[in-house]
Amino acid sequence: MSRGNYLFTSESVSEGHPDKVCDRISDAIVDLYLDADPHSRVACETLVTTNRIVLAGEVRGPESVTPESIEKAARNAVREIGYEQEGFHWDLAEFQNYLHEQSIDIARGVDADVGSEKDEGAGDQGIMFGYACRETEPLMPAPIFYSHRILHEMAKARHAGRTPELGPDSKSQVTLVYEDGKPVRADAVVVSTQHSEDVTSERVEEIVRSFVEEVMPKGWVNGSTKLYVNPTGRFVIGGPDGDTGLTGRKIIVDTYGGAAPHGGGAFSGKDPTKVDRSAAYAARYLAKNVVAAGLADKCTLQVSYAIGVSQPLSIYADLHGTGSVAEADLEKALRQVMDLSPRGIREHLGLSRPIYERTAAYGHFGRQPDNDGGFSWERSDLVEPIRGALS
């Protein structure tokens, strides 16, 4: 097999997967605080299991965010996903809240002089990656893009009442054939979906197949494609009743499906002073604009930070041999076109708004920007500034 011919696989999980339930709840709490005060600080972790929801973490925000409003936000998140089952019910699950005040030592490093316009420091050390490529219209790797889309379309049908046989919990996995480095067809698709007790496995497969064929490009699913639907044969008990969930356990699902490196930090439950989240969004934003500008077919960016230090310690670009510019020149240009301090990222992308609960499932990247500022890191408005900085 030549270097350009291979199989590559990515997976996705639905909003009803136990870990994604936790991500959704944690981001609902972030939105609750930012809606009350855009300067709030939130690091919220969630655990869910059979009829139990547990929050823990550190916060700093207005007194108007009460324990009662936090519980309401958490339960609403579960209700909107669709859990009204005996083993996990939005209204009946036991709720425990162990959120407490943010450490003053962390606050000192992040805020510098509280209330001033002085640059804020990063909320922690770490490395973050951004990636873009030409495999799909939103410049995302094809395997993760189509894995997300299958589950997202299934969820929309479930919410609309068109597939009452299916439950909230599901997973997908797409294996694509690459020829000369480009995806050309699906070798295998795996979908496991929660279903009602009385539906047959044949009916579940029929439903799933319709979504797979609808989502995948024409001709990519054919007689040689292997389709596996609920390989265990039964998936009635699902969600937190079947498996414990935790915030931040689906970092590859959230990003590029393994097609690009990951620095290790999760996104959900964190306000935008946490560079695990905001700098990863900025890196995707810059990488997407590099590819959209026609400067490369693939772009991987890495940025690194130290706690309490405003500007990134390093910026690294890899154009994978597809670029028309020198990577060292690109690294300098990217520093010119965007302030990559936590404050600069937050202001440029408008991140201090309650826009995060919607990111918790189906990927943080490759989504359409919303009218109210959500997914702002998916804009392609730096194309000309990047070109100008390189000229």
Explain what you see:
The structure is a single chain. The chain is of the alpha+beta class and 391 residues long. It is 32% helix and 24% strand. The protein has ten helices and 13 strands. Strand 12 and strand 13 (314-318) form a beta hairpin. The radius of gyration is 21 Å and the shape is flat. It starts with 5 loop residues before the first strand and ends with a helix.
Walk me through the topology:
Layout: E1 6-13, H1 18-36, E2 41-49, E3 52-60, H2 67-81, E4 84-85, E5 88-89, E6 94-101, H3 104-111, E7 126-133, H4 142-159, E8 166-179, E9 182-195, H5 201-215, E10 226-229, E11 245-246, H6 251-254, H7 275-292, E12 298-305, E13 314-318, H8 327-337, H9 342-349, H10 383-390
Parallel strand pairs: 3-6, 9-10
Antiparallel strand pairs: 1-8, 2-3, 2-11, 4-5, 7-12, 8-9, 12-13
Helix pairs in contact: 1-2, 4-5, 7-9, 8-10
Give a short summary of the structure:
With 391 residues, the chain is an alpha+beta fold.
